[in-house]
Amino acid sequence: MEMEAYVLREFGDLAHLVEISTPEPTLTPKQVLVRQCAIAIEPYDVAFCAGQTDGHVLPVIPGSSVAGEIVAVGDAVTGYHIGERVVASRYLKTYGEYVPVNQRELARIPAEMSYAQAVSLAVSGQTAYQMIRHYLQPMPNQKILIHGGMGNVGRIAIQLAQNTGAQVYTTASTANVAKLSKLPDIIAIDYTKTSLAEFGVEFDLILDTIGGQTLKDSLVALKSGGKLVSIVDEPNTQRPDITATQEFLTSSGADLEALLNMIVNGVLMLPPIEVVPMTLANVRVGHELVGSGHYDRKYVLVYE
């Protein structure tokens, strides 16, 4: 059977992202087929289509998030069945009506949560969860700096760190510092006015979501014995007294499901979402907004 999908024919201009009819995906034994209901535009999607990642053989269906209903299961799938509402992150192939997903990447969507809400957490929320829970693992009273506090990763990471009892710092623009300063138990640094060196605090832990010079400055601001994780660039430091690594999201249904349950149980707050119909024009608008670096919510497209 055929499905509608958006295919990238060339990197660069989004004019090369076009709508086509293509055969529905064929499943491997441990995959399920998800009828797509909601997609989030992620910074990675923007970078991929612009040709700023490692690249891929073209043409290809881009996209890294999927939320929808299982309509078929592979022969070796266990624990999932047709009709279940699920969400996942995966590498490419989500800008289409049907998406194949490995069962280990699947999370069940709680009854209290919409497809749009669930997919808004599939990549950025899951990334924040893994960086805080698996890599940085803050302890009570430790000083942790989370760059980009108004970003989609930063918003969730801040809340996760606060729940551990750590002392949370973040960086943001002047306008966003004013918003963040209204939140309890967080110290916001205006990066347009104060450098980390001028701020003068040594941090136990740092989550870098910016890269470049911000990462370089962060390596200096880390105290002896401290740990830094960047999700953007590979840290380059000669300091033998710190741990600094670049880490990537590893799609995990278990992690994503735990995060979704924290939202519905009121442990974490969901970041703001803009929901629009799934059209090629709206996909292009989403890429422009997310790529601007100043969009302060999650851009989600839904099939109607």
Automatic annotation (TrEMBL):
Q: Which InterPro entries does the UniProt entry name for this protein?
A: ADH-like_N (IPR013154), ER (IPR020843), GroES-like_sf (IPR011032), Lipid_raft_assoc_Zn_ADH (IPR052585), NAD(P)-bd_dom_sf (IPR036291)
Q: Which GO terms describe its molecular function?
A: oxidoreductase activity
Could you tell me which residue ranges the Enoyl reductase (ER) domain spans? 12-301
Write down the SMART domains for this protein, in alphabetical order. Answer: PKS_ER
Give the matching CDD domains: MDR_like_2 (cd05289)
This chain belongs to the protein called NADP-dependent oxidoreductase
